[in-house]
């Protein structure tokens, strides 16, 4: 029983350390993106996402080869 309590305490400690590390990595990534001149695209509301995904089953590919992909809109350079 003592061994299980020790393992549980260690798992709690590891979980806390992982959360702290994740927070630090997120902050570093934000600073790096800011220094590199990238900004995240504005977030879409859940309603906008539902409208975007709620098509009528028609193929969205209209054959326009000059159309930009959605990934181009996800990251924009700040000017």
The mean pLDDT is: 73
* Topology as a string of helices (H) and strands (E): HEHHE
Provide the spatial order of strands within the biggest beta sheet: 1-2
- Count, helices: 3
What is the helix fraction of residues, given as a range?
A: 55-70%
Task: Please tally the β strands and state the result.
Answer: 2
Radius of gyration: 22 Å
User: How far apart, in Å, are the first and last alpha carbons?
Assistant: 61 Å
Q: What amount of the residues lies in strands?
A: 5-15%
How would you sum up this structure in a few lines?
The protein contains three helices and two strands, in the order H-E-H-H-E.
Note down, in words, how this protein is organized:
Residues 37-79 are annotated as: Disordered. Residues 49-79 have a biased composition (Acidic residues). This protein has 79 residues and is mostly helical. The chain has a domain at 1-35. Helix content is 59%, strand content 8%. The protein is built from three helices and two strands. It has helices at 2-35, 46-53, 70-74, and strands spanning 38-40, 75-77. It has a two-stranded antiparallel ribbon with strand order 1-2. The relative contact order is 0.10. The model is unreliable at 68-74 (pLDDT under 50).
